[in-house]
Amino acid sequence: MVNTAFAKTFRASVKPVELVSALRKEADSKAAAVDHNRTVIPNLYDIRLSVADYKAVVDWGEDALRQEFEDSLKDHANFQRYALVGALSVRFLKDDTLSTGRFAISSRSSRGAAVAASPSTQNSRHPLIDIDGQRYHLTGEVTIVGRGSEADIVVNDSGVSRQHVKFEVTDFGTILIDLGSTNGTFVEDQRIKEATLLDGNAITIGRTTIMYWDGLLSGGDA
Fold first, then answer.
1. How does the average pLDDT of the chain come out, rounded?
2. What is the pTM of this model?
3. Residue 1 has pLDDT above 50, yes or no
4. How far apart are the C-alpha atoms of 212 and 45, rounded to whole Å?
5. Which residues, other chains included, contact 60 with Cβ-Cβ below 8 Å and sequence gap of 6+?
6. pLDDT at 207
7. What pLDDT digit, counting tens, does each position of 149-171 carry?
8. CA 48 – CA 94 distance, rounded (Å)
9. Which residues contact 114 (CB under 8 A, 6 or more apart)?
């Protein structure tokens, strides 16, 4: 399906379906069993392309294609019950040494502030948030949510500021801090500047609702 969608753009060069297959093989080859219940794969992937193939990616829409590839890798990770130590990301890089139709893929792991929840991470004891059906474990001490690309978790909502709120995970609970947003931050319909979150709290930023759970023992499986 992916190959058909991009066939006209990638006529005489590498096909997206080839890249998706290569990404999955890269993940499989780097899969490392941490224990009997947890196998970790890299979360950062670089695809080096020839000048012509890189131009084809840009012409079609680099951001859209990147999202397609990341979604495909997430599906593969969920199916194989792989775990990630940070947010999954795919980059396209131009390599003048490669000829048209040739590509190279490299990967690495880098711990991020938040990790997308999946069946392989359902037993995590990290706090959990749900944003429009997408769940994330707060694995870092600080996680920023906003509309801008610099945020750890990006929310597609024009009512949300570029860096809207900050989650601080401490030994005494998770603290939510409004970062001077334009439209404010609300916890259980009460506008706040800073609040210590309780299990099951509903947070509103712009038109987006974020559900918060303390972790495994309280709401992680809800």
1. 85
2. 0.58
3. no
4. 30
5. 6, 9, 10
6. 96
7. 678 888 989 999 999 999 999 98
8. 6
9. 87, 129, 136, 137, 138, 139, 140, 143, 152, 153
| Tokens standing for residue 192 | 């706040």
- Residue 176 carries which side chain, given as an amino acid letter? L
Written as six digits, the tokens of 56 are 């084809």
Segment among 1-5, 151-155, 194-198 with least mean pLDDT: 1-5
Question: Which of 87, 78, 83 has its CA nearest to residue 121?
Answer: 83
Residue that has been written with the tokens 């990290």 in this structure: 126
Task: Take residue 66 and report the two structure tokens written for it.
Answer: 């990147």
| Count of all residues that appear for the chain in the document | 222
